[in-house]
Amino acid sequence: MKIEDEKSFDELTDKEYKYGFVTDIESESLPPGLNEDIVREISRRKEEPEWLTEWRLKAFRAWQKMETPEWAKVEFPPIDYQALSYYSAPKQKIDAPKSLDEIDPELLETYEKLGIPLREQEMLAGVVAVDAVFDSVSVATTFKGKLEEMGIIFCSFSEAVKDHPELVKQYLGTVIPTKDNYFAALNSAVFSDGSFCFVPKGVRCPMELSTYFRINAANTGQFERTLVIAEEGAYVSYLEGCTAPQRDENQLHAAVVELVALEDAQIKYSTVQNWYPGDKNGKGGIYNFVTKRGHCRGDRSKISWTQVETGSAITWKYPSCVLKGDDSVGEFYSVAVTNNMQQADTGTKMIHVGKNTSSTIISKGISAGRAHNSYRGLVRIGPTAENARNFSQCDSMLIGDRCGAHTFPYIDVSNPSAQVEHEATTTKIGEDQIFYCNQRGLDTEEAVSLIVNGFCKEVFRELPMEFAVEAQKLLGISLEGSVG
Amino acid sequence: MALLEIIELQAQVEEKQILNGINLSIQPGEVHAIMGPNGSGKSTLSNVLAGNESYEQTGGNVLFDGADLSELDAHERARAGLFLAFQYPVEIAGISNMYFLKAAVNAIREHRGEKQLDAMEFLDVIEDKKKLVKIREDLLERAVNSGFSGGEKKRNEIFQMAMLEPKMAILDETDSGLDIDALRIVADGVNALRSPERGFLVITHYQRLLEYIVPDFVHVLVNGRIVKSGGKELALELEEHGYEAFEGAAV
Ligand SMILES: Nc1ncnc2c1ncn2[C@@H]1O[C@H](COP(=O)(O)OP(=O)(O)OP(=O)(O)O)[C@@H](O)[C@H]1O
Ligand SMILES: [Mg+2]
Predict the structure, then answer these.
(1) Using H for helix, E for strand and C for coil, what is the string for chain A?
(2) Which CATH number do you get for residue B126?
């Protein structure tokens, strides 16, 4: 068997994106273009308070002066921001549904194709609460009542702005300032909706909170905004997963996720990302430029990021932790898969500020086809971070001869008591390994999937059970046909 | 009908002709041994039979259980009951030996139309077969062949064979690198699997193995051809005189 065999390779990679379909629902979109009037109009349509309109405008003005970052190892044609439309909502929003029965059946069907039957989820009493985001507006929120009794707020971002403006105002932009970077500024100006979660002091959220994102309307950039707050001693596990229908034009996705953990609080944030990656020549596909950051503000607080990235044409994403509280802990577990023409530049930043802070980074990058996969990680031990510790492990796996893996670790230590360890490996799935598996009765795709899942084990272990199963399947789908 | 019928088989690797017309017929229940100097093509033959695509069959025919092997991919041959104990088993990090075997057993069971084994049933089967080759528990939990000693790898191959219960097993120098006790254990394992339906092709350099696994036929492979066939006494003859007498003849 020859992995580099051009013909069989192409034959096998011909499989089309499983979740490629488009829902036919009328969108009330704004015309393409971006200027202060559009920003104001978004805010007006969402009936936002004055301070938020101003906040958006400030971000917009900052964004106008900024330039697209070029340091990442990804390539794409310049994006025409004036050609995008910045707001689209399913028509239903006008008379909001009281229950799932009132929801457009076509919409429900879309979720079903994605394997997220909401009805069933509702019946799965108390396992997962779903705040499903369709296009830019939330259409269904389940389990809200149950959570409310415990004082937990889990709702769409727009609802939070209406019902809990003081909380939003107190925390919005305090982890990721509007001017943080180009895409965060853009998001701050035009964000459409997203999720909000607040777990009060001493409360342990009894279920995994989950949001499914989905891009639908053509030409509409998606600008989700997520804010998760865990007060003193609170605990929450948050799941984010998404997949998008097939599209010809590149779609921009620039989400912002902010996490705040106060004293003794713990936030576990897990993502399975499966946006449309484009066809085998790289046409179409989502540009995923995400800013995710968590603040361990209180002593002994802990934030864990776990991500499985299989989709998108381009992924640009560095979930980070700022370890401000003493004895606080940051974790980053990541699997990033790139196949065909996909490009991923992802990693994390661990900023140690408090004493005895510790961080762990486990990154697994898998490249197949002609894809490029880069790990970029920063570990900064500040002068005040007495006895800080970091352990980083970055493993790359190559499938075939035309892909690439790159590791860019940045270590910046300003306190002599720090202990920083970095390990990196690169392996290749060998033809001999595949043949060995074949000889034991496993076909080549089963073999690749087995080997790759073994490689990613340490990360999958960190995912909630149902998610781990889904992630393993996804990996199989993403790498279908990667070995000829 | 022969279980394995090799007719005028020719094969090359990297454009280099290695097998120059091999004829061999193995009936169900028979054990055949192949001996031959280094580089004569023994592993090439086993790879070609198992369907390794790095090796190209350039002529001849192979029938397995009546089916033309060239029509089957490697995994299909395995599912049909052809097993190869590798001369150099490869390491696969991250997957436990046990997990790997369960996937293999179930792939083959599915092919046979048998129901998948769940974790408990699988453990029962493991318990049985473990005794057969006296494989250490920790080797089952470790990643496939990872960090196994040479002898442990070989024993693991026989353990896998016992688990998969093939119709036809090719053992490529399974005895090389085994200590005396291990050699006996492996041989006992093979003998326990000997049955009227099963065929074995045992590749070895040492007639000692053949004292434990007594073959029905011994073949001498030189320069990609079988130059002599005989009974088990042929192995003794070879041990005494070496291959020199054949080297010229085969070219
Ligand atoms: N992948 C390969 N590339 C180039 N030559 C190869 C390759 N595989 C086998 N050969 C050559 O084919 C010939 C036969 O090799 P093979 O491994 O079949 O020998 P063997 O009889 O099994 O020897 P041994 O007793 O040492 O195991 C050797 O000359 C070897 O170098
Ligand atoms: Mg050999």
Answers:
(1) CCCCCHHHHHHHHCCCCCCCCCCCCCECCCCCCCCHHHHHHHHHHCCCCHHHHHHHHHHHHHHHCCCCCCCCCCCCCCCCHHHCECCCCEHHHHHCCCCHHHCCHHHHHHHHHCCCCHHHHHHCCCCEEEEEEECCEEEEECCHHHHHHCCCEEEEHHHHHHHCHHHHHHHCCCCCCCCCCHHHHHHHHHCCEEEEEEECCCCECCCEEEEEECCCCCCECECEEEEEEECCCCEEEEEEEEECCCCCCCEEECCEEEEEECCCCEEEEEEEEECCCCCCCCCCCEEEEEEEEEEECCCCCEEEEEEEECCCCEEEECCEEEECCCCCEEEEEEEEEECCCCEEEEEEEEEECCCCCEEEEEEEEEEECCCEEEEEEEEEECCCCCCCEEEEEEEEEEECCCCEEEEEEEEEECCCCCEEEEEEEEEECCHHHHHHHHHCCCCHHHHHHHHHHHHCHHHHCCCCHHHHHHHHHHHHHHCCCCCC
(2) 3.40.50.300
